[in-house]
Hints:
18 strands; mainly beta; 4-stranded antiparallel sheet; globular
Amino acid sequence: NKxxxxxxxxYQIVFxxxxxxxxxxxxxxVVNTDKKEIQDTYYIGPNASSIEVYSIAFDLNHIxxxxxxxxxxxxxNNPNLAxxxxxxxxxxxxxxxxxxxxxxxxxxxxYACYYDNSADxxxxxxxxxxxxxxxxxxxxxxxxxxxxxxxxxxxxxNAIIIFNNNLIEERRITDYGFAAAEPFDALYDTDxxxxxxxxx
Length: 200
């Protein structure tokens, strides 16, 4: 409800302990779900400016965010994350100043999805020993990365690609037998049942 300038869209919500981190069109909002109150707001762009944050991920030490102009990261235990100077921009990745639409921690690695607007395709990079290496590209647009039940999901506009814990592709879904796939999201539950949120 707060009156602010700019895009107030929420792109993703990530839960970490008792806090909900909202990736928003202007930055990051932290919600204390126990107290049901806004705990903090992070404007992480240059000089504390607004920047579109599409996705958030955590590993053992850091918080990572995918934004309209690259990937930013900070010490997740830093008590002063509201200060933009505490955030660093990743420079050792391909296209460091470009749009990254999704970021995810899976099996102790960070995965980031770069979107090439001119070619209308995505490339997924994996952070390994402080180096970002290309992990997946299919000349398609990846709309989301997700993980559940020890699988990594790559959600494309017309396909779901599922990788196992060893990063071997174990399944690719392009249709349901009665209609073509146009998925938004997918996951396995604890009983290994696959659920898909589709456009139709």
